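Reviewer comment 2.1 asked that we show a complete input and output for one of the modelled complexes. We chose the nicotinamide-adenine-dinucleotide case, as it is the one discussed in the main text.
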Amino acid sequence: MTPPTVARSRPPDGASRPCRLPPGDGFIAGRQVAEAVAGVAAAFATGSPWRAWQRREALGQAATLVLQRADQLTELISAESSKTVREARAEVHRCAETLRLSAAEAAHLGGQTLPFDDTPRGTGRFGWSTREPVGVVAAITPFNDPLNLIAHKLGPALVAGNGVVLKPAEATPLTALALVEVLLDAGVPADRVAAVPGRGAEAGRALVSNPLVDLISFTGGFRTGDEIARTAGATRLLMELGGNCPVIVCADASRRDTAEAVVAGAFGVAGQNCLSVQRVYVHASRAEEFTAEVVARTRALVVGSKADPGTDVGPLINEGEATRVERWVDEARHHGATVHTGGRRDCAYYLPTVLTDVPPDIRVMTEEVFGPVVSIEPFEDIDHAVRRANDTAYGLQAGVFTRDIDAALDIAARLRVGAVMINDTSDFRIDAMPFGGPKRSGIGREGVRCAIEAMTEPKVVAVRRAAA
Ligand code: NAD
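Response of the prediction step:
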């Protein structure tokens, strides 16, 4: 059987030679990563020009192909990751949107004219700056949104004119390769993109330590990000790391709408989402009825096979992760937490779990759970709620539920996060918005336009007019 093509970068000798899956476990080794990076770097430096209009057309066509291949991509995502088919299909559509947005940005890769005559030294000169691609982008992605998070790196990097080497998560290489295939079929030159499915400790480390890499765009956990930063040294970094997202529910919030949104935000993708609702601070006057509504709705969720369109909550990515979540909930229980529903593991499944009475310094409160667990805590005054919401090493997104717009805007101004969703939970984004957060949630912002900004740099051209 012919092994599948996994990377089609042009090697340094200029010959067009696809890399092929090696025998063994199918993972790419460090040596092959170096070959892929060298190929992309050579094409970027000396390959044929790839104009902005060609980039726009290729990425627009890629968006169309993603929709045409939606069934196949949906199946792949659900088979490899832990998404249900419903969640996988939604991601396919998001991916097409991200590629469409990327294509549209080709028209805005402008620069600016520079006011040289604003200083005596500039007299007799005029000039401008353009946005230039940084060169070779190393894209490293996690398992939980295995298609769209890749599109968030490859779309902006390619439309800006860079070359990209992608290292997808160990668990989801085939989804990544299917997207690279879409890009190649859509007209992205084969020497501008390479995929190196491999282990983090080997292929990942080889990629981030390669001196030909100009920028590392990483999405994953904080500890991995920290390790990458140490390995990469003084290389440009764009990092989307974890979350531990809070939601504040004020006394005037609608019980049903709020509970419905909290349950969806906490248990979608079995909580394996950086935007998952993890901590809910609810006004004490409403805490009992709100908790009861959340618990009732959580019990009504269908936990089951990923392949069943009727399933609401599927498994975690593997049994090891489910066991970790079990340990963390047991720890909370041991320290006095009340488990209202869930609190039980079955192989790689962890039942959607609602906790109250969790001490503030326990891991389900302080760390990113990345599993189907939500903790509810009552508050008496809003200052306390804001303090508790901010009392975390992360700062990705937050939600606030209230009918009082002044209160909502005041809370939004005081939350130290990348985005605040008013009358919604933390678990909302559109692919065009700046995405990321302060503290341990990352470095810089993604979201198509922001990523392009990070993946380009200004270049000045100045003209000295000949003396008359
Ligand atoms: P992870 O950090 O374990 O792995 C992410 C990627 O890094 C994988 O491709 C992995 O192989 C690679 N990697 C691991 N060690 C490496 C090394 N030493 N050098 C280079 N690469 C290495 O994350 P995961 O478990 O796949 O995903 C879950 C995490 O991702 C969560 O923490 C979640 O919050 C985060 N995440 C963040 C966002 C965001 O936009 N903020 C979005 C999705 C997921």
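The two ends are 73 Å apart (CA to CA). We note this here for comparison with the apo prediction described in Section 3.2.
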